Amino acid sequence: MTLQTNADAETQPVLVAEDIVTGYDGHEVLHGVSIQSHPGVTCIFGPNGSGKSTLLKSLNGVVPVWSGSIQYGDTEVTDLSPDEMVGSGIATLPQGGGVFGTMTVAENLSLGAFTVDDPTVVEERKAEVLEAFPALEDKLDAKAKSLSGGQQMMVSLGRAMMTGADTYLMDEPSAGLAPTLVDDAFDLLETLVDRGARIILIEQNVVAALRLADYIYILAEGDLQFEGTPSELGQQEDLMELYLGIE
Amino acid sequence: MSKREGSLPPRLESIVYTADGDGYDWRLAWGIVAVLLVAIPWLGAGTFELRILIGVLMWIGLAQSWNMIGGYAGYLDFGHGAYFGIGAFVTGIAMVSLSLPFLPALVLAGIFGAVFAYAIGVPTLRLKGAYFAIATWAFAEAMRQLALLLDITGGTSGLTLPSTMAAFGIPLPDLPRVIYLYYIMLVLSVGVVVLTYVLFEHHEFGYKVKAVRDNEDAAESLGIDATRIKRQVYVLSCTTAAVLGGAYAFYITFVHPQEVLDSMITAQMVIMALVGGLGTILGPIIGGALIFLLDRLSALYFGSDTMYISLMGLLIMLVVLFAPDGIVGLLTGETDASDIRSNLNSLLEKFKFQ
């Protein structure tokens, strides 16, 4: 497996959500939001309570969609359950990454591929993960909780790679990390992008996330307020200040 | 998992490594233990020794049963004894009111245990940490009060079961009853231990359970259905407790709410798993045998329960402060007894108190 280039990202299936309306217990949170996964990192920003997490949960099947549709490549995935979403190539990274602390790194990685029956595929993916994160090679037999914060992030990213996903949904991967580790964590996301993956990222740490954003959506009160590239956003100083607190 | 074939080093820690599924090949040693356990009634063991062994086996089985939900799944179940009582009463009622032989009565005990566990598990497994403990404790207390009130359970006078082996279900040669009871408990207890070992240490199911315990969000992000896994563990662990309760009823031949639904039964299971080592296969075996013998010795030397209960309190304090992974944790060297702060946090985290 050679290192994939960014050019491959153009050929990855695109996750397209159109006019998503959803919420909880009859209370509507999203009022018709359309987004898609762009090559590289697609960031969703917005104040607390804007519906960012709900949007992500509707994309991975945790929160059922009331109306609207979700397509992945040529496949309709609107009503799939979370585990079916994993099977179709969309992996979710929980807040702060999260490892299975009492299990070894090798066991953590194997669990990522528990739905895969073919052992050669599992071995191939494991080799790929170790190529992307060589630091894990020596740690395979170590309990995940004994690893440093940065290495734990590698484990959770590696575990998500083991599902064989092309698209990653991430809800605040930097949550709970020491501030000095946040930049390292985002560097790790670049590793995934370099291998052709597309990432949809929710992040409170706007300044750090802007550094690697290729496309940006701003969500507030359940509606999109902006979409465009970072340079387009840069020209909208009022938006930057209003929603992102950047002056 | 590496397995070193053919070597049988006498180091104690190597026994413990097999608890994690890797290490040495201990089939020969376990084989000898198995042969001894089967042969013991014919090696001069009398009624007294066999009754002690029946107790040891039953408590190993019960501690292992609690270990499934408490240790492997990380749910502090304070109502587990209720299932022991349900199993005992179902067996008693089936044998007395329905005149069923022991074997079909025992199957009924397991079925009732599973049905109750599912009905109680669906709402309570949504709770975490102390809230789950309180809810299950309340359920167990409710069951005891109910058993004291109902006619079918014999109310405050309890139930008396048939006390001959004629009620077993299969015609048997004429041997002392205690020998049969020993074998019944041996089969059930070893069955629970082997089931736990296969499912939780050597099967994908066990990895999923531990994944849900360690990080539920991360487990679900991989497509593991956490709710379903937790229900399966809870039903399985409660069913095994109910079956052991059924065997206990046939052994003692008298079932009373204040005895088989006593909250001390749950407490014993928790202490045994805790002292031995939570979430390990060897922990409940060590803890179950040790604590039961301690209980008997304290009854022998001090008579009343008072000293035993004080001893247990002291033991819990020691384990919480110095050995959160119990005796197994100390043997494997994974526990640093001097790191009290981290030891305390380890248990709080395990049971999701924080």
From TrEMBL, chain B:
Compartments reported by the entry: Cell membrane
Keyword Membrane: yes
GO cellular component, one term: plasma membrane
Membrane topology: Multi-pass membrane protein
Coiled coil: none
Keywords of this entry: Cell membrane, Membrane, Transmembrane, Transmembrane helix
Main location, first listed in the record: membrane
Keyword Transmembrane tagged: yes
Entry's transmembrane regions: 28-44, 81-100, 106-125, 146-168, 180-200, 233-251, 271-294, 306-323
InterPro entries: ABC_transp_permease (IPR001851), LivM-like (IPR043428)
GO molecular function: branched-chain amino acid transmembrane transporter activity
Pfam families referenced in this protein's UniProt entry, alphabetically: BPD_transp_2
Protein known as: Branched-chain amino acid ABC transporter permease
Organism name: Salinadaptatus halalkaliphilus
